[in-house]
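Journal club side-thread
Mid-discussion, someone asked how the predicted structure for our own chain would compare to the paper's figures. Pasting it here so we can look after the session.
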Amino acid sequence: MRALLLLCVLAAVYRRELRVFADTDGVLRETSKKLAERVAAIPGLHGPLRLEWHPDETWSEGKATRWPDMLRDEFDRRALQISEERSAPALSVYATETPTHMVLTAKAEVGDREEVRMVTILRASLPPAESPVAPVRVERQLIYQSPDRILDVSSLASGPDGGLAVLQYKNFEAIAFRVDAKGELRQVVSLNAAAVKPVRDPHGEISLHGNQVSVQLWGKTCDFSWGSPTEVKCHAEKVLSPVKTIVRMDAVLTSPCDGTNWTVLQRSIEPTMREVLHLVPDGSTQESSTTVMSEFPGPVLNLSMEQSPGNALVVTRNLRTGNYEVYKITLACGN
């Protein structure tokens, strides 16, 4: 009780209430800014400093993780360098709630003295830790399969036949081809001009720009047009990182329910296990209750965005049949 009374007294001394911003992050940003200004003004305090974040023990993970990033940004704006080195002096920030206020307290050692700076804010002015998210589900459709290794796919939805552009590794040769919406082969382009060396674990990406196609392989990049498939031009390129190209981690799907963006995350990369993709809405973590999941019959080898922001293409290898399969995943409304 004495500690709580002291905290309330200090809060009353330092209290400077903030106006409520229409932007949900405005209040957090303004509060972080004020604390950073007061900390940066401490005489003799210099970086690099190691930020130690101590949130209220009753806070949820989502509520506690938004503040440290904003504090780091505001400290950086004031040339107060924040380091991850354990040997750096600690800058401890404590977040505590009273019945009506939230109090941020920063403590730092400067020479032989402890410096303390505080900022308070009305709890009623804070946005919720996680914005409400409309329920969604993931619908999955098998649209193509092959016994030969599929490296990457891209949608041809804007073409006359729809379908897919497929990058494949067959008989130690990379080829690109088109299939229509029914999966029937329409055109094959050999990438022999690339003269790529056989590799144990090939990876590649195929990108479409209208009728133009760009293929990135291990050490080579090839460009051609569907209208002139024999005129393939290849040149040396930086070798692709296998880890980077297995799944494009910047894949984001937009919910048709409320416009929320959902990031596609991969929990693990195990070649002998069924893969589960996690879709996480903005402002949440992979462990959040709002996360939705979709399981595939084998490891996910690649993922690419479709024309529609609510769709993506997933390449996987079916561990039971050995076939390489392409699935279209779609966000749909409802649980």
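Post-session note: Residues 61-77 form the longest helix (17 residues).
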